[in-house]
Amino acid sequence: MPTLRTTASRRAGLALIAATMIGAAPAQPGRPPVTGISHLAVYTTDPAATDRFYRVVLGARKGADPEDPAGVRYYFSARQFVEVLPAPKDHRPGMLAHVGYITADAARLRAWLIGQGMRDLSPVQRGAGGDRWFGGQDPEGNAVQFVQPVSNSTTPEKGAICGRILHIGYAVQDRARQDGFYRRLLGFRPYWYGAFHADKVDWVSQQVPDGRDWLEYMMVGPGSDVTLESVDARQLGVLNHVSLGVVNMEAAVTTLYRENRLSPRHDGPQMGLDGKWQANFYDPDGTRVELMEYQPVRQPCCSAFTAASPAAP
Length: 313
Prior knowledge:
Elements: H1 8-15, H2 18-22, E1 34-44, H3 47-57, E2 61-64, E3 72-75, E4 81-86, E5 96-103, H4 106-115, E6 125-126, E7 132-137, E8 143-148, E9 165-172, H5 175-185, E10 189-194, E11 203-207, E12 214-219, H6 233-239, E13 241-246, H7 249-258, E14 266-271, E15 277-282, E16 288-293
Parallel strand pairs: 1-4, 5-8, 9-12, 13-16
Antiparallel strand pairs: 1-5, 2-3, 3-4, 6-7, 7-8, 9-13, 10-11, 11-12, 14-15, 15-16
C-alpha cells in the first residue's frame, strides 16, 4: 500500500463512487462460517533462498506440505501459513499459486456452494494432520481453497515476527465480477477502499464473512492507476501479497535490523493511505510480505473504515 497523501479533494472525489464500494448483499442462509485467512501459496524458483526468507527473516516454522510432497509450509501459527511450491515451467508471469480461507466445515461449505450453482469444485481432501480442504476458482480464474484446520490456535510460532496473517491481496481486473463471488455469494463485508487519485480506485478491502481478516482487491486496468500493460512479473509480486500483523512496527523492524534478518529488497516503515504503519519485504521471487499494524493511528484517506479493525492478540 502506498504512503499517505490525504487531501480533502481526493476524499470528496472518491465519495462519488462510495455507493458502489460499500454495499454488499448478505450471504445466503445456511452457509457454514468463513472465519479468516488460511494461507497464501506461492511459487519459487530458488527453494533454498526462499527457505531462508520465510524461516530466518520472518521466523516461520517450516513444515511438510500435506497437499503436495514437493511443497513446504511456513507456519506463523498453527492455523496460518505461507505455502511454497516449485514453480512449474508453464506458470503465468506472477508467482501466485492459490489463496486459502478458513471455514468451520469444509464438507458442508462445498455442498452449500454446489447448491448455489458452483461447479468444478475439487473433492474434500484430508491431510495427515487432520486438516480438510477443497478448492475451486473465483470468476477471474484465481485458485481458491477453503480449509478446515484442526487447530484454531492463534499463538505465534516461536521466533516468528508475528503469528497473524491479517490479509491477502491479489490483482483484480473486474471488480463487479469478483464481487459476485466474494461479496454477494460468500458475504464478504466492506472494510476500506483507497486510491492515489480522486477519480481512481486502486485498493478495495473486504473482511471475511465471519471474522476480521480481509481480502484486498489490487485493482488493475480501467479505473485504477495501474494499467494492464504495465503489469509484469515484478509488479505482480507487489500486487499479489500477504500481510502480517504486528503490534508495534518500530519494535518489529528494529528486531529484524538488530538480528540481521532483513531481506535484500525491502522498503519502509511508512504510513499507509489507510492510516496504518506498514513495511514491505520481498521473497527471492518478488512476492511481497507486508508487515502492518493492527490499528490505524491517523485518519485514513479516501474512505472511512466500515468495519472494526482486527484486534491485536
